[in-house]
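I would like you to sit down with the record closing this message with an eye to the fold:
=====
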Amino acid sequence: MVDFSIDSTFQVKLDWMKDFVENKVRPLEYIYDYDFDAPFDTSNVALRKIVVRLQNEVKAQGLWAAHLPPHLGGHGFGAVKLTYMNEMLGLSAFGSVIFGCQGPDTGNSEILAMFGTDEQKRTYLQPLLDGEIFSTFAMTEPQGGSDPTNLQCVARRDGDDWVITGDKWFSSNARNAAFIIVMAASDPEAPPYERATMFIIPRDAPGFEIVRDIGFWTDAPNSGGHPWIRFNDVRVPDSARLGPIGEGFKVAQSRLGGGRLHHAQRNIGLVKHLIDLMAERAVSRFSGGKPIASNQAVQHTIAQSYIEWTQYRLLVLYTAWLFDQQMEHGSEGRKMISAVKAAMAKIAEDVVVRAVHLHGSHGLSNIMRFGHYLASALHEGAADGVTELHLGLVSKLFLRDYTPRLDSNLPGETTFLKKAWAQEKLQPLLDELGLTFEDGRASIETDLPEEKYNLRKGSIGA
């Protein structure tokens, strides 16, 4: 049975979290200047002290690093409960760090838990879960996006070592990371999904270079938390390999699904916040002597946004439930992960634009944060695979359950075909009761020569 309910004990935790996020976490982003990645900036000692202090409050509540599920050795509450938590964190760049569930560290901790050696877990996973270090996941490249079959960054075997050479793009948090998990082509001639291998590269490895800092539209030039990085013949031992040789794609897929779900969960909170802003503005702003909330167009905008948000939230909760059943790697799980990935970008874009319009000149000004929200929404449509790619995958997996009609060249719901099909199905019942179709004034089809409609006998309307 699909179940999204929350027990009373956990509801108490959520109530505490709601107050904590609103009154202690969200104030940070209005006071501290940052280029989107300040929560990770270990060089800002004063700010780090504040972050650590708040992290300790979260740990005391037993809500720290709740993303890693119990079947991977973590202390998570499951994906459904994490949904209720993450939607509260969607409004704050600081929130996920203070709760120990920030990307890309969440996905990196998952693959370390699943594929890491005992030594890798001691060196990287435990400090990551404890919030002592940060990490980067480097798969996307300048020329090929996140297409794992088009990797130009290569890993060349040299005795007991590997030599990594090539560029990676939009490598979130690389400047503050202690290590980078990089996906490189270890055998460019192998079948497309068997070419790559994962490696763990320490941030201070000789030959590692940050080519340029890159951010969103709203970040200043030469700033931002998503650098272009380069591996200049970086040498690492084979013990730095994460997972089997040639199975980098498999390792990547195991983390990307969870990452996409976490983004979608946080997006729930962001979209609801935008709707709240619209509602507040609608009842507060007067035009023609009455609040604009009395205008039908405004009512429709808010109602449409609320309905779409409710539908989207249920979509995410259902996908989270599939994760709790450990079905994320099956056909239904993969289909729904792509569905929420495609849905989150569209609803965020649509609702941001509606909120801007409803706020008028305020919405377009730099005294509001709508520009940042729109940039984030568009980012969600491109990161971890563009929306069009995920829509295609949803369609592909959905259509697997359908077979082409071979009995007719007409649509299955053609009325006269269905009439004949219905007659065939109902005739035994009428015979049992000693009735005819005419007795009940039925509307039946009397002329169905099979050669006329290209039918196969016995398959009418199937």
Notes: The longest strand covers residues 228-237. Residues 182 and 303 are 44 Å apart (CA to CA). The chain has four domains: 8-116, 136-242, 249-399, 405-462.
